[in-house]
Amino acid sequence: MQVFDAIVVGAGPAGSACAYSLAKEGLEVLVVERGSFAGAKNTWGGAFYGPVLTNLLPDFWQEAPVERPIFQHRYSFLSGESCLSVDYTGPRFKSRPYNGFTMFRAKFDAWFASKAQQAGAIIATGLQADDVLKNGGRISGIRAGGDELPARVVVACDGVNSILAQKAGLRGELLPGDVKQGVKEVLEFPPGEVARRFNLFDGGGIDWEFIGDCTRGLPGGAFIYTNKESLSVGVVVGLKSLVETGIRADDLLEDFKRHPAVAGLIEGGRLVEYSAHLIPVSGLGMMPRRLYADGFLVAGDAAALVLGTGLALEGANFAVSSGIAAAQAVLKATKESDFSAKTLCYYQKLLEESFVLKDLKTHQKAPHFLENRRIYSLYPKLACELADSVFTSDGKPRKRTWKLLREKMKGRVSFYRMARDLIEAARAL
Amino acid sequence: MNIIVCVKQILDPDLPPAKFRVDEQSKRVIPPEGIPFVMNPYDEQALELALRLKEKNGGKIIILSAGGQEALSSIKHALSLGADDGFALSDEAFDGSDSFSVAYILSCAIKKIGNYDLVLCGRQAADWDEGLTGPLVAHRLGIPVINLVREIELSNDKLRFTRVISGGEQVFDVAAPALATVTNEAPQPRLPTGWGIIAANRKQIAVWNAGDIGADVSLVGGRARRRKLTGLFVTERNRSCEFIGGENVLEAADKLAQRLNQLGAIR
Predict the structure, then answer these.
(1) Which domain holds residue B45?
(2) Is domain A6-60+103-173+285-362 given the CATH code 3.50.50.60 in the classification?
(3) Considering the domain boundaries, does residue B217 fall inside one?
(4) What residues of B are in contact with residue A32 (Cβ under 8 Å)?
(5) For residue A291, what are the contacts with CB-CB under 8 A and spacing of at least 6?
(6) Best mutation site among B21, B191, B195 for testing chain A: the one with the most A CBs within 10 Å?
(7) In A216, A428, B88, B195, which residue has its Cα 20 to 30 A from B67's Cα atom?
(8) Is residue B213 part of a domain?
């Protein structure tokens, strides 16, 4: 029976980056994907930060199915019917190589997997990896479609619910506190309408995040991403808080869509997709201590490599990077003909030296900080009330902003507590 | 026993209705972006019968499919399930072919293969539901055809077909070669194995053009159509929501029943 040089499980960005890197070096790589095509199981439609991919595939965006380069980032506080926004755009975001893109992973993953296939990897779709094969203490392949498929090394890129990482003993069951639930709609518009409504020029797009009443004070937020001729509109909320309060994420999405700051922008959109998915958000707190074992590596969401700072929720770029690092470790192991943990630990070392684990370390306090409910209820409310007072001209004498703030805070939050939250924010984010 | 299975790739019948659209001007379906075609489910069941016959009696299964890239993926799927070989029939001249032309194209390819005992097709394609191609291929080949077949056996050198009829079955014995169209009462298709998928991925699938199969191009493509499609519409569905209340449950139920009756939903 044939033994593959490497079996990669899951044809997402981590899996395809890994398979592409390995096949390019002449290794016999099998990618096992349970969907009928790469991307078939994917519901992701958001912002992808591209520079990590340009190392592997320079100018990938000219060929890949991206929607719009992101020219503009906007953050909004929602309170009642009010909305206070901060918007940033700069020349760097408008020039090549673009910093980020809106895209649909269903399309992007299919494209990325086809690159791996062209490089020589076998992409076996419609095949689910059910278990790892163990030989002594080491992992020697996978069980899929009723067959045993042996390999020198298995790279698990099988997503947030990674069955293989659990079977390999690297991590336990997923806990509700470690994940957020995302619910998203794709609304389609006639050609040109998205650009007109959002004032978009030169094909650029906007990444717009909301915080406040859109989650009824639960940890999380809402988003709008502009695609070519459609919008991705959704909410992302802590699963544990949903379970505790009995609030449903789809109800939050309906509320969000009715908010006056949003309703007019999405009016008349044709609902073409509705989907939900879990996002691992606990960062280092939920990451397996070791991302390698004898004959085994774990990358992407399966290794919980997602950065959630409140200002950003990034995973796909971390997945690509970890996939490339896994491939480098496999190449080293192949060269040394040693697939034991002793050699494969090089993978974790590479991640520690790269932005992947450095960013997660920098923001390791963020998941805890982001549990602070004042961020989602009181502060957006204060900000909106303050803005309301500052901008109101009703013929009455005005007060200084500082005095207004003190009045609004009275009985709701102390200066001391707010200062502490600010310092914590500065430390965590 | 050599079996040829003709398969068609269609828009996924499980496609969400919001993704299904037709261009009423050109009278074509607009294929939704990023959603691949799938093998016609009746053809999958035809392949399942072929695989069972092969398992019992030995022989070879060859897949034929007219079309470009999508045909390749259907053939690959068939190979992963255990078919031995497959050919995609693709040529610019074939574009716009209707069932009559496709039947002609398939019959040319079948004649080229030559050595066969049985040709199988699905009872119809789950996209246009015409059910013409199978019988037309048989007609072109001059061989007997049995439609709505649920089961096939080899019995004393004869092919025995069990055909589904309303409230019962018919059994026909036919000397090979013959063509059968397979009904949805046939066994459900199997799932591919790991090694099956890997083997299918490694296999090069040959593409035959009009010249390869000796097809007369005046008989294929849009210009060979003798039926002109003059209208193609998606039935409009309207949904509306009404709230019906009352002083108490009995009154509300009464009002609801009246309203449903008025709408013709109950009598």
Answers:
(1) 2-17+32-224
(2) yes
(3) yes
(4) 194
(5) A170, A297, A298, A299, A303, A347, A348, A351
(6) B195
(7) B195
(8) yes
Beta carbons within 8 Å of B207's beta carbon, 6+ residues apart: B72, B87, B88, B89, B90
Handedness of CA A402, A404, A406, A408 (dihedral sign): negative
On whether any CB of chain A is under 8 Å from the CB of B33, the answer is yes
Confirm or reject contact between B17 and chain A (CB < 8 A). no
ipTM score of complex: 0.79
DSSP A224-293: EEE-SSEEEEEEEEEHHHHHHH---HHHHHHHHHHSHHHHHHHTT-EEEEEEEEEEE--GGGTS-S-SEE
CATH number at residue B109: 3.40.50.620
What residue has token string 């070989």?
B85
Q: What is the pLDDT of residues A163-220, one digit of tens each?
A: 999 999 998 888 888 899 999 999 999 999 999 999 999 999 999 999 999 999 899 9
CB A13 within 8 A of CB A112: yes
Q: Determine whether the interchain pair A146/B193 forms a contact, defined as Cβ–Cβ distance below 8 Å.
A: yes
- State whether residue B192 sits within 8 Å of chain A by CB: yes
Question: In a structure prediction context, what are the per-residue pLDDT tens digits for chain B, which is 267 residues long?
Answer: 999 999 999 998 888 777 788 888 888 888 887 778 899 999 999 999 999 999 999 999 999 999 888 899 999 999 999 999 999 999 999 999 999 999 999 999 999 999 999 999 999 999 999 999 999 999 999 999 999 999 999 988 899 999 999 999 999 999 999 999 999 999 999 999 999 999 999 899 999 999 999 999 999 998 999 998 899 988 877 778 888 888 999 999 999 999 999 988 887
Token code pair at residue A261: 């700051």
Q: Do B191 and A145 touch (CB under 8 A)?
A: yes
Give the whole-angstrom CA distance, residue A317 versus residue A323: 10
**Tens digit of each residue's pLDDT (9 = 90 or more) over A102-143:** 999 989 999 999 999 999 999 999 999 999 999 988 999 999
Task: Show which of residues 219-248 on chain B sit within 8 Å of chain A, judged by CB atoms.
Answer: none
Residues of B in contact with A122 (CB under 8 A): 198, 201-202
Give how many domains chain B has, as a whole number: 1
With CA atoms as reference, report the closest residue to A137 among A325, A285, A342: A342
Residue with the two structure tokens 């500065």: A426
Could you tell me which residues are beta bridge partners of residue A102? A47, A68
Range scoring the smallest mean pLDDT among A338-342, A389-393, B239-243 = B239-243
Q: Please check whether residue B108 lies inside any domain of the structure.
A: yes
Q: A162: number of CA atoms within 13 Å, CB side? A: 37
B246 within domain boundaries: no
Q: What are phi and psi of A242, to 5 degrees?
A: -65, -45
Distances (CA, A) of A188 to A271, B111, B165: 6, 48, 46
CB contact under 8 A, A124 and B198: yes
**A116-127 per-position pLDDT tens digit:** 999 999 999 999
